[in-house]
Design goal:
about 240 residues; four-stranded antiparallel β-sheet; alpha+beta
């Protein structure tokens, strides 16, 4: 049972979030206004989630069965669940609701919805793949900057409609000395990359699946010609160190 008297939101209130949830659960004539206010109280600048946001997860999951806004808000909270929010115990207590949310998200993905990527990222967060939940794009205009693991040169990885390559970024000349990426064959994918690719293929998301193959494939450093796995090096360079 949540003790809402201890669950502060980003407005430093302890009573407004459960009131808003009650209004949304039982119907409210100003539903859009209630959802907007709830989002502002639970998530700060689309980055940090408040303790009240973690506490609200089980009720949002129940609402998500019939509400797109509830599904999206619960997904945003999950994407930030690895950050500092003071609600680790509440998150652990919500394990059943989170598992239920994962089933709901996976079912929604199979309907090939317009919000496919938003749902896909939320499901990644449910799977505790918080890094990819926060950085994965749709591979139409995606760039990943990382240091070469062998010579430390800063390398730009492009995966999009304009090309799929590694390069040295020159702010006057653009991306120079391009080298084609080497996508991972399906049978060589493993771990989260294999799971992401299989889900995208299952749902007919060919562009997303192809992008994932390149993201978890190989790149050549334009400076020293060494070859490395893009996802491994990008994750190593950008994942925060957990304490």
């Amino acid at each position: 049972m949540v003790n809402w008297a201890q669950m502060y939101d980003w407005h430093s209130d302890v009573d407004r979030v459960p009131e808003l949830l009650d209004r949304l659960e039982y119907g409210d004539e100003d539903e859009d206004e209630a959802w907007t206010e709830l989002g502002h109280r639970l998530i700060l600048e689309r980055d940090l989630v408040s303790p009240a946001g973690i506490a609200a997860l089980p009720r949002l999951v129940r609402l998500a069965v019939g509400s797109t806004k509830a599904r999206h808000l619960a997904g945003e909270i999950m994407e930030r669940a690895a950050g500092h929010h003071g609600g680790d115990d509440l998150l652990a207590d919500s394990i059943d609701a989170i598992a239920e949310f994962g089933i709901l998200l996976d079912r929604h993905l199979q309907s090939r919805p317009a919000d496919y990527l938003v749902t896909f990222r939320a499901l990644l967060a449910v799977q505790e793949q918080y890094h990819w939940a926060n950085v994965l794009g749709d591979f139409t205009d995606d760039f990943y900057d990382l240091p070469c693991p062998h010579c430390a040169t800063q390398v730009t990885i492009a995966i999009g409609d304009y090309g799929r390559y590694s390069a040295i970024r020159d702010w006057n000349l653009g991306d120079v000395d391009r080298r084609d990426l080497r996508p991972a064959p399906d049978e060589e994918l493993s771990g989260v990359g294999r799971w992401m690719h299989e889900v995208a293929v299952r749902d007919g998301e060919a562009g997303l699946a192809e992008g994932i193959s390149h993201l978890f494939g190989k790149a050549e450093c334009p400076r020293c010609a060494s070859v490395f796995t893009v996802a491994d090096e990008y994750e190593a360079a950008n994942c925060p160190v957990l304490r």
